Amino acid sequence: MAAYKRLFLEGHSYYITIVTHRRNPILVDNIDALRESFRESKKYYRYNIDAIVVLPDHIHMIITPQVTNEYPKIIRAIKYNFSIKLNIDSEQSVARHKKGMNPIWQKRYYEHTIRNEKDYIRCIEYMQKNPIKHGLIDNNTKWKYTSL
């Protein structure tokens, strides 16, 4: 596997997509645990959530970390705390897999450094249309689990 190198640019925002393992639709059903996992992560890392949309099996968000190279730690904290809230130890995901138990999250996540206002708007528009794309709402309905 090729080594992936993340881009850390001071003062930039990051568009992030986090997906559950095998697209298990557990996020909306456990929205309180997910919200608490974000609150818990903010105890240790300083960042703004500029925009977010939570779908049953994945999250899209734009975050602006105060310390740029901490955004991977922020994502890890959110995933870890959500797993704990569901009484599943995310550090045991390999052992869980060997025992035939599914992990909560995909191992990796998608990350894109937002470079300018046009790029930012493109990401926001994608996030706004995502619940429609997945058939969760129609064009005239507002998705409940979004900041947009």
Write a short abstract of this structure.
This protein is an alpha+beta fold and 148 residues long.
Write structural notes for this entry.
By secondary structure, this protein is α+β, with helices and mostly antiparallel strands. The protein has a single domain, classed as Transposase IS200-like (Alpha-Beta Plaits, 2-Layer Sandwich), CATH 3.30.70.1290. The chain is 34% helix and 19% strand. It contains 4 helices and 4 strands, in the order E-H-E-E-H-H-E-H. It has helices at 31-42, 71-85, 93-98, 117-133; strands at 13-19, 47-54, 58-65, 110-114. The protein starts with 12 loop residues before the first strand and ends in a 15-residue tail after the last helix.
Write the layout of secondary structure elements.
Blueprint: E1 13-19, H1 31-42, E2 47-54, E3 58-65, H2 71-85, H3 93-98, E4 110-114, H4 117-133
Antiparallel strand pairs: 1-3, 1-4, 2-3
Protein name: Transposase and inactivated derivatives
Domain Transposase IS200-like: 9-130
GO biological process, one term: DNA transposition
Structural class: alpha+beta
| Anisotropy-based shape | globular
Kindly state the number of beta strands: 4
- CATH architectural group: 2-Layer Sandwich
Average predicted confidence as pLDDT: 89
Q: Give the termini distance in whole angstroms.
A: 37 Å
Alpha-carbon Rg, integer = 16 Å
The stretches of 5 or more residues where confidence is low (pLDDT under 50) are: 89-94
**CATH-defined topology:** Alpha-Beta Plaits
CATH-defined superfamily: Transposase IS200-like
Secondary-structure element series? EHEEHHEH
Query: What fraction strand?
Result: 15-25%
The number of domains is 1
Q: Which class in CATH terms?
A: Alpha Beta
- Helix amount, in percent? 25-40%
Record the strand order, biggest sheet.
2-3-1-4
What is the count of helical runs?
Answer: 4
